[in-house]
């Protein structure tokens, strides 16, 4: 009866918060003593992507962890605003000034959507809270194909002529296509990029031999790797993934070389970060930073990070802002060269 | 609008309505075609461009709505029967106008109070129910929605100043 | 053997409780338009984190079954499809309710839903690995072929003026194109408006066109639902069951169409339209469809439920979600530490067979739950219009809002409502508009993906036997009236025999 229980728990919590809320407002009225800020109503957690995608999964995972471990007195409410490649969600947050009850999880569309569609927003219009993790990308091919290294694939693409090699990816002018363009720029080979709806579709299309290669996230393709249908060639991070547990054929994530060490000089990771509304105060930012630190310490989160072979870098404050500025410039450069900027 | 005597009660005729709707579609089709032209309506080396299908969709829509328009304009026996009688029109407006007000109220005071007012008004004005029958329905339905969406499912619906005061 | 083990997992009384809770919540979610299966499952997903994976998936999949059943309820009663896949159920279900046969329509809908699901579960139980391999053969060209087939089996059969059919259909396609173009990432027809970024959602259009439009039409005829005089008693279930065996051919066809569309994965909504279209074309009573034929309820419901259920198969065996709800469940599986894919059936036997066993039991439980509510729901029609109408409008507004959490969608719904009223009066058909809206986007992107693969060469649609067969079948469907005429002329006798055997 967990549902009914939690429902009644929620009801009880709602009743208690109504009481405690009035208590709090009385205390704040009577004393000017500084109290650490806490959410006073439910927190909206915006996902600038559809239900079922990677960002949505992570947001609902966080919602579940917060609820299960009672990390916050108020409920977290996940809301999907996926319109215009996520622009709708970002505009919602950047447009709600000084609303600390609104946070958003990002994917690369934080950088790519304004550049590709011309919808005016930037990460600077919101308040950066924390980088939770970086999502890895891996170059995959079908295990039946002869390619063993990135070089094999690139050589085949070069010698096969135009349209011989097809790269499948999620969405258009977003992370997957940018990586594809970066590979083309680094090697001079050409790939025909086919945009699909979701990462799972792409992996299945690769298993079915409809495309030559993909740059799926680890979690989207790992099941097919274990089943012997796909082969990872290299990971687009600066260092190898730090997970040594064997996955398939006695290979672990750690045995997958970086693209750079196997001669393909392309680096790319995707931000899984948290932002809140513009104009919130330092206390409020501090509350969320501490909240997400607590989330990161739970075994559920650690388990989730390992399953998805994430890069678990955590950043806040100025370090995070510097990283954002640098990454924005990288995206702009890559997209400009590839001709992806909105006219 | 000139109408024959027998149609005195008519707000408008089928004939007029057909022409108006066909004109609306034709205008919409032009808008679709112009925008498709902007994003490119050709067949590039790697297949159709973003505006290829919408352009032809617009074109077909234009042609078919023009056909409807012409058929109605040149017809010797136009369908001058009543599209909607005045009495019917008043009835439809009796639902439509409160609904438009209701949607406006959602924007102002949130969906829960707007729903309570809307249901109460509708029952009072059209149903002529006594107040003791109106109140339970008008209060319980929004309350049930509130419990279901805000508390159980954690799906926020539009809320206004009153809910904000209560801490939602 | 494995299945027995699965039923063993279900012996845990808590799992049975979760099942009932799931079904009930699911029916509720299905009844509320807008709050669909995918949203419903996503919303309740975090609640299940403290359960074991098997219990969690049992409850979530039961929510899904409940939503599949529940979608039909408002379609029949108020002409408002609770879920996208119950749009086709309104075509004959609502006329039945207007004739005072709401109880029959609901019973037929629920029973045929159950039947479709049952066929799909049997398929999953015995043929999962074989079918998984078949699904892998589907690339963009094959997807487009299936979408074309759906379209062709549905169009070209109305009595309306051809130009009006064409205009309505094109309006659907044009609305589907608004927003971000998924292939080039360009914005189409948004005219700089941020509100248009999300495009026009199928559900919002449908809630307006069917639901609000219906209320306006009802109002015009003077403040009463026609089904008011309906006689309601529990025996209606048994009486309806006596009639249902007549439609065995339609039910089987619907189940096959549904399983095929769920696995490939075409989705439950196109499946329901395709099944309705085929039934209308090949049934003896086809010409009466749309006037309250029970067969017109059986056809879409069997297909929708079969598709919804079999959509879980590619999810479990390949990790491809066959429907939006399956995509959310897939996310759930990953969160619980299960990796859907070819090895799931080997490594997680208890989980997989527990799930399959719960599909059998969950659907039986679901059928019992919804059938007991038939008299209850049918009696809603006895509530006076001036009470029920504002409540329906409120629920429509809630539904339109929850689809994208956008206020403007409520206003858009209202505009579609007025449009629905005018369309009905000028006899512009709504079905082609709705079908174009639901299929337009998908078909365009599969077509253009296929064109990217072949670099603009149309022969990709005949490049292998699978895609060639489907495309040819689709074209045959499109020109069926001409073909059947020709057959009738050339071989009058054998032609009529062939028609009989098709029933």
Automatic annotation (TrEMBL), chain A:
It comes from the Bacteria. Gene3D superfamilies: Bordetella uptake gene, domain 1, Periplasmic binding protein-like II. Pfam families: TctC. InterPro entries: BUG (IPR005064), Bug_dom1 (IPR042100). Transmembrane segments: none annotated. PANTHER family: BLR4371 PROTEIN, TRICARBOXYLATE-BINDING PROTEIN. Belongs to the UPF0065 (bug) family. This is Tricarboxylate transporter.
Automatic annotation (TrEMBL), chain B:
The keyword Lipid metabolism does not apply. Pfam families: TctB (PF07331). The chain crosses the membrane at residues 12-34, 54-74, 95-122, 134-155. The keyword Transmembrane applies. It comes from the Bacteria. Signal peptide: none annotated. Residues 20-158 form the DUF1468 domain. Keywords: Membrane, Transmembrane, Transmembrane helix. InterPro entries: DUF1468 (IPR009936). This is Tricarboxylate transporter. It comes from Skermanella aerolata. The lineage of its organism: Bacteria, Pseudomonadati, Pseudomonadota, Alphaproteobacteria, Rhodospirillales.
Automatic annotation (TrEMBL), chain C:
Keywords: Membrane, Transmembrane, Transmembrane helix. It holds the Pfam family TctA. The chain crosses the membrane at residues 16-36, 56-78, 105-128, 134-156, 163-180, 200-219, 318-339, 351-371, 383-400, 406-423, 467-487. It comes from the Bacteria. The keyword Ubl conjugation does not apply. Residues 16-435 form the DUF112 domain. This is Tricarboxylate transporter. It comes from Skermanella aerolata. The lineage of its organism: Bacteria, Pseudomonadati, Pseudomonadota, Alphaproteobacteria, Rhodospirillales.
């Amino acid at each position: 009866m967990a549902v009914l229980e939690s429902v009644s728990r929620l009801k009880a919590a709602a009743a208690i918060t109504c009481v405690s809320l009035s208590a709090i407002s009385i205390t704040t009225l009577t004393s000017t003593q500084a109290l650490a800020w806490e959410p006073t109503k439910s927190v909206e957690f915006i996902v600038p992507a559809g239900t079922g995608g990677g960002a949505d999964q992570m947001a609902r995972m966080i919602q579940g962890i917060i609820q299960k471990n009672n990390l916050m007195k108020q409920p977290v409410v996940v809301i999907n605003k996926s319109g215009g490649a996520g622009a709708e969600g970002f505009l919602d947050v950047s447009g709600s000034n000084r609303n600390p009850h609104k946070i958003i999880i990002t994917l690369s569309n934080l950088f790519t959507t304004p550049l590709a569609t011309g919808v005016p927003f930037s990460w600077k219009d919101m308040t950066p809270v924390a980088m939770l993790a970086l999502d890895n990308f891996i170059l995959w091919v079908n295990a039946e194909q002869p390619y063993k290294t990135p070089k094999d694939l690139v050589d085949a693409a070069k010698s096969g002529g135009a349209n011989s090699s097809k790269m499948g990816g999620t969405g258009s002018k977003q992370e997957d296509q940018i990586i594809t363009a970066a590979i083309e720029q680094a090697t001079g080979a050409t790939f025909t990029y086919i945009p699909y709806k979701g990462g799972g579709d792409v992996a299945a299309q690769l298993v079915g031999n409809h495309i030559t290669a993909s740059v799926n996230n680890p979690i989207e393709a790992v099941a097919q790797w274990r089943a012997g249908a796909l082969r990872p060639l290299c990971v687009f991070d600066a260092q190898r993934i730090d997970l040594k547990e064997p996955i398939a054929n006695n290979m672990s994530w750690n045995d997958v070389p970086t693209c750079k060490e196997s001669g393909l000089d392309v680096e790319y990771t995707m931000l899984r970060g948290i932002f809140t509304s513009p104009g919130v105060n330092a206390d409020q930012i501090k509350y969320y930073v501490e909240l997400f630190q607590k989330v990161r310490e739970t075994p559920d989160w650690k388990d989730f990070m390992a399953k998805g072979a994430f890069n678990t870098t955590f950043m806040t404050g100025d370090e995070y802002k510097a990283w954002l500025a640098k990454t924005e410039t990288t995206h702009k450069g890559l997209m400009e060269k590839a001709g992806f900027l909105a006219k | 609008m000139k109408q024959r005597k027998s149609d005195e009660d008519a707000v408008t005729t089928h004939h007029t309505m057909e022409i108006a709707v066909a004109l609306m579609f034709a205008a919409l089709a032009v808008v679709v075609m112009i925008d498709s032209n902007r994003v490119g309506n050709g067949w590039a080396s790697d297949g159709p461009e973003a505006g290829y299908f919408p352009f032809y969709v617009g074109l077909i829509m234009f042609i078919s709505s023009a056909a409807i328009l012409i058929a109605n304009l040149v017809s010797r026996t136009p369908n001058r029967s009543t599209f909607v009688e005045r009495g019917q029109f008043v009835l439809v407006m009796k639902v439509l106008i409160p609904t438009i007000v209701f949607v406006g109220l959602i924007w102002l005071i949130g969906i829960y109070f707007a729903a309570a007012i809307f249901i109460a008004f509708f029952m009072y004005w059209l149903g002529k129910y006594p107040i003791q029958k109106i109140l339970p329905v008008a209060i319980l339905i929004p309350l049930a929605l509130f419990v279901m969406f805000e508390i159980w499912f954690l799906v926020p619906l539009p809320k206004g100043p009153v809910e904000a005061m209560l801490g939602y | 053997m494995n299945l027995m083990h699965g039923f063993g997992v279900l012996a845990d009384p808590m799992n049975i409780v979760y099942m009932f809770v799931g079904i009930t919540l699911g029916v509720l979610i299905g009844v509320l338009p807008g709050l669909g299966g995918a949203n419903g499952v996503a919303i309740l997903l975090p609640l299940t984190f403290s359960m074991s994976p098997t219990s969690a998936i049992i409850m979530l999949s039961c929510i899904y079954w409940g939503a599949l059943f529940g979608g039909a309820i408002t379609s029949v009663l108020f002409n408002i499809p609770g879920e996208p896949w119950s749009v086709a159920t309104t075509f004959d279900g609502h006329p039945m309710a207007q004739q005072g046969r709401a109880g029959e329509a609901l019973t037929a809908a629920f029973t045929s839903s159950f039947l479709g699901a049952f066929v799909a579960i049997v398929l999953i139980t015995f043929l999962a690995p074989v079918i998984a391999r078949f699904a892998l053969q589907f690339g963009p060209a094959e997807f487009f072929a299936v979408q074309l087939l759906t379209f062709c089996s549905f169009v070209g059969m109305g009595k309306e003026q051809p130009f009006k059919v064409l205009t309505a259909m094109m309006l659907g396609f044009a609305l589907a194109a608004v927003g971000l173009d998924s292939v080039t990432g360009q914005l189409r027809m948004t005219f700089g408006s941020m509100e248009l970024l999300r495009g026009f959602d199928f559900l919002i259009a449908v809630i307006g066109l069917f639901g609000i439009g219906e209320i306006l039409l009802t109002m015009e005829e003077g403040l009463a639902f026609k089904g008011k005089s309906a006689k309601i008693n529990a025996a209606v279930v048994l009486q309806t069951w006596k009639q249902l065996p007549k439609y065995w051919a339609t039910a089987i066809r619907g189940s096959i169409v549904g399983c095929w569309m769920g696995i490939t994965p075409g989705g439950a909504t196109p499946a329901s339209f395709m099944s309705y279209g085929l039934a209308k074309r090949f049934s003896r009573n086809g010409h009466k469809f749309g006037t309250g034929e029970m067969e017109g309820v059986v056809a879409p419901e069997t297909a929708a439920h079969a598709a919804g259920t079999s959509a879980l198969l590619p999810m479990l065996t390949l990790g491809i979600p066959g429907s939006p709800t399956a995509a959310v469940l897939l996310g759930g599986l990953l969160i619980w530490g299960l990796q859907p894919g070819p090895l799931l059936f080997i490594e997680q036997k208890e989980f997989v067979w527990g799930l399959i066993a719960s599909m059998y039991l969950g659907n039986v439980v679901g059928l019992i739950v919804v059938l007991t509510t038939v008299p209850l729901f049918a009696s809603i029609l006895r509530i006076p219009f001036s009470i029920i109408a504002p409540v329906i409008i409120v629920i429509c507004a809630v539904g339109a809002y929850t689809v994208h959490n956008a206020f403007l969608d409520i206003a858009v719904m209202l505009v579609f409502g007025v449009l629905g009223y005018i369309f009905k009066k000028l006899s512009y058909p709504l079905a082609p508009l709705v079908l174009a809206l639901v299929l337009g986007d998908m078909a365009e992107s599969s077509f253009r993906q296929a064109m990217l693969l072949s670099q603009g060469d149309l022969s990709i649609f005949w490049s292998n036997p699978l895609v060639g067969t489907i495309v040819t079948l689709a074209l045959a469907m499109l020109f069926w009236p001409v073909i059947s005429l020709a057959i009738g002329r050339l071989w009058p006798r054998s032609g009529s025999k062939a028609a009989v055997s098709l029933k």
